[in-house]
Write a structure and sequence with these properties.
255 residues, alpha+beta, Creatine Amidinohydrolase, five-stranded antiparallel β-sheet, 17 strands, 30% helix, 24% strand, globular
């Protein structure tokens, strides 16, 4: 969507706050012995407290309130009862719908005590996202964000997952434009003032080729390589990226 009124901005900010609160609470639940289902339950509770619904349930009839993807799973991992072990790499993806507005965010959390393998992947994705957001301005080609992400990830010795992209968001989950994590060439749409997009580096330690699992939801790497995923929903403004899903400055949730 493209924001044209203060009411729309306020609505998106409220939806973004739900993402931030849910991710903060779910991060704390990532401990050895916990299960993805335990973590998903924490997020579901935060959404309920805010009066929000899980947009994937509303839009795509998903079977869970949040996706939890572990190790080689990239996105759309269904919350299982498999207990987490130290060193596992957990991706948490939350997309609430509140009062008709949808925001989208994701973090990657190593299970402590973590390994350098997991930390390096998570840091690469997070830093690639920060680099891309620092470049946001009206008139910038969307593909330029992908080029920044790809360059950063390659420098770290990893690969972006080309089959999955960021996207416009706001009134539904996936809106134009697609926001690839590399430069695919060709004509690129331009970022415009007020445009709402989800920027989400998806990083693989190996090739980045993916497959859909038997559950018809979980997308994982073909070669078993681990992955990391970071995502923010932003508004493009003349002053740069207004991040809607950032944690509160004091680190406290508002549920």
């Amino acid at each position: 969507m493209s924001i044209t009124t203060q009411d729309e901005l306020a609505g998106m900010q409220r939806a973004g706050r739900v993402v931030a609160d849910a991710l903060a609470a779910m991060r704390e639940a990532v401990v050895p012995g916990a299960t993805p289902a335990d973590i998903e339950a924490v997020g579901a509770d935060i959404l309920r407290r805010h009066g929000a619904r899980a947009a994937p349930v509303v839009v795509y009839d998903a079977p869970c309130a949040a996706f939890i993807s572990v190790n080689d799973a990239v996105v759309h991992g269904l919350p299982t009862r498999t207990r987490l072990r130290a060193g596992d790499l957990v991706k948490i993806d939350v997309t609430p719908q509140l009062d008709g507005f949808i925001a989208d965010g994701a973090i990657t959390v190593p299970v402590e005590p973590s390994t350098s393998r997991g930390r390096r992947l998570a840091q690469s994705a997070e830093r690639a996202l920060a680099s891309a957001l620092a470049a946001v301005r009206p008139g910038l080609p969307v593909h330029a964000l992908g080029a920044i992400i790809d360059r950063h990830v390659r420098r770290d010795g990893f690969s972006v997952i080309r089959d999955l992209t960021g996207h416009g968001v706001g009134r539904t989950i996936h809106e134009p434009p697609e926001v690839p994590n590399y430069d695919p060439g060709g004509v690129s749409p331009l970022l415009t003032d007020g445009l709402v997009i989800a920027v989400e580096p998806l990083v693989a330690e190996r090739s980045g080729a993916v497959r859909v699992g038997r559950d018809r939801w979980t997308i994982a790497t073909r070669d078993g390589g681990w992955t990391a995923h970071w995502e923010h929903t932003i508004v493009v403004t003349a002053a740069g990226a207004l991040v809607l899903t950032a944690p509160s400055p004091d680190g406290e949730t508002t549920h």
